[in-house]
Structure formats: C-alpha cells, structure tokens
Amino acid sequence: MTNYQSQLSLAKEAAKVAGEIIRSYHSTSVGRSNNSAKVNVKSGVDLVTEADTRVEKVVTDMIKNAFPNDLIVGEEDQAERPKGGQGENFPAGSIWCVDPIDGTTNFVHNYPFVAVSIGFIHNSVPRVGVVYNPFTNCLYEAAEGSGTLMNGKPVRIDTDATSIKDCLLVNNIGHLRNDDFIEESSERIQKWLKAGLRGFRASGSAAQNLAHVASGQVSCYFEHGFGGPWDVAAGTVLVREAGGVVWDARGDCDDLKMTFGKGSVCAGSRQVVEDVLKIAGKPKFDLNL
Ligand code: IPD
After folding, report:
1. How many CB atoms within 10 Å of residue 278?
2. 75 is in an annotated binding site
3. So where does Mg(2+) get bound (predicted)?
4. Is residue 205 in contact with ligand 1, taking CB distance under 6 Å?
5. Can you give the pTM of this predicted structure?
6. Confidence band (pLDDT; 50, 70, 90) for 4?
7. What is the whole-number distance in angstroms between the Cα of residue 72 and the centre of ligand 1?
8. Is the pLDDT of residue 260 over 60?
9. Closest CA to 105 of 208, 56, 209, 34
C-alpha cells in the first residue's frame, strides 16, 4: 500500500460530488453562454459563479469532516484561508488546495475545459492530486509514489517530444491585462513559433493543462501568472508521478514551490521544459507587484 491513500480516496469522492453539481448548472443551449451560472466579476476579467461557491463549500465540508485538523486553501472563500502574502511559502503541516471550477470563464461560455482540482500538500510538498473534468468525464489521480491514472488506467507524459520542434505546447494567458505583461506574453509566443514549435494551444484551465501533460495529451504547459496555488497543486502531483517535471518558469531547473498568490510554471518532460524555457528567456513581468 502506498502513501496518502485515505486523502486520495476522499479527493476522488469529493471531485465526483463536485462534478455532479457543476453538470447540474450546465446550460442545454450548446454554444451559448451558460445563463444558469449567475456570473460575478471578481476583478477585471476574473469571474466567479454561484456554482464555484457552492462546489467549494461542499468540497471543503467533506474535507473538514474527514480531516478536521487540516487547513484548506480554497480559491473563493478567503475567510477560511490561512493567511499568506503574494509569493510567500506555504507553512508546514497538512493543507488542501481546492479549485472548485478551474476554467470558470470556460464554464460561463460552455467551453468544456473545466475541471475540479483537489490537491493535498504535506510539509509544503504536493502529495495527492485529483483533477476531474465533469464534461469529458475524465478523472486524473495520483498519490506520491503510486503513479498517475486517467480513468483508472496508468498514463505517462509525452516522451516522444525531445525539443520544441515536436512539442504541442499549451500556454494560458490568465487574468492579467497590464500592457507590459501583454507585450511580454506575445513576444514569448513569437519566440517559440520562430524556433519551430509544432503546435500552440491555450485551454483556459491550468488544472486541465497539467492533467493533459501528465497523460501525454500535450507535451508542455507554460504559464507566467497563473491565479493561485489551487490552480496547480493537484496537477503538479499528476505530472511528477507521470514522469515529468514541474518547474517555476522564473528559476533555473527550480521545482515549483507551493506559495500564496500568483505564480509561474512550466511542466513536461525535462528535455522539453529546458528547451521551452531556454527559448522563452526568463519572464521579466514581476508577479509580486
Ligand atoms: C484560471 C485558469 C486559467 C489560468 C488562470 C487561472 P480560474 O483559474 O486556470 O486557465 O490561465 O491563471 O487563474 O479562475 O478559472 O479558476
């Protein structure tokens, strides 16, 4: 028996319950905006819906019931969160990271890259990850030392890609709209394309991207400025357990740390991540401002 199995079972159970709730909000008018979602704007282009809040409450209640002493960092409920400033490391102990709907903008538009993301972190290292897309009905799971499964079958990262030339890269542009951020993001894409990148995508869900990297469905995921640890905690375990690396895109071969606030990530096989980062150069836009 490998480690963290009780946390893994709970995360899977909670993800399935969450998925039911998310599906219940799904508009039947395919291709139209999800009118049943009751959308609010958090700030700028960052959205939250009634479904996000409801799912987060259900999932956090399930966690509190099963592991009453653990801390929970949810995307929406700031009152419940342990406090930490932008870029500050997670404290030691047992912490759950919950993104009730990763890809809220997609959800609002009925674009099916939407995932529940539940990660368990022990002593600052992500140990368990479950990412569930209720529309494609794909559940990705991993616990430290036990490999990654997609709907119960073992998966691995894309090892055929050895450089940017055979890489399918997914690069989300999140919620930042500063001029220098936009310029830097566009220049980075140009550099990859000029270096011969095979394919460029942007899905709108960080958790879904990491799950796709873990299962070899894309070769690499890069994002400078993802929204918070709830976007990446679960997916980090999926990728590492599937044989990949998850680095902080601002460092040199630097494993992504669990920190509060926005972050920067590049995930995939070591070879491809090295190539993608070398071509991009270090991001200059300061997320800590
Ligand atoms: C966002 C999504 C998006 C990423 C942003 C995240 P949310 O999370 O993962 O793909 O680009 O950085 O904040 O707001 O949909 O939960």
Report:
1. 11
2. yes
3. 75, 99, 101-102, 231
4. yes
5. 0.96
6. very high
7. 19
8. yes
9. 34
